[in-house]
Amino acid sequence: MPTAKDIGKRLRELRGDKSQKTIASAIGISTSTYSMYEIGQRIPRDEIKIKIAEFYKKSIESIFF
């Protein structure tokens, strides 16, 4: 099972040149919450994992497991 830091690294890589604000707005969360996911301080709840995976057009497993 990947750690919160591992997940954060994956999210940073997926984000590329998009802003955290753009992604947070698209999935309906605050920019500060998304930032915490990227720096490995929090792991998203299941419903947010689904929204993130849909935004990036990736499977949940490829990002979070």
Topology:
Blueprint: H1 4-15, H2 20-27, H3 31-38, H4 46-56, H5 60-64
Helix pairs in contact: 2-3
Care to describe what's here?
This protein is mostly helical. The chain has five helices and no strands. It is globular. It starts with a helix and ends with a helix. 15% of the residues are buried.
Radius of gyration: 10 Å
Query: Between the first and last Cα atoms, what is the distance in angstroms?
Result: 6 Å
Order of helices and strands: HHHHH
Average pLDDT taken over every residue: 97
The biggest sheet, with number of strands, parallel, antiparallel or mixed sense and barrel status, is: none
Strand content: under 5%
Secondary structure: number of strands: 0
Helix amount: 55-70%
Individual helix count: 5
Low-confidence stretches: none
What is shown here, in short?
With 65 residues, this protein is mostly helical.
What structural keywords apply?
68% helix; mainly alpha; 65 residues
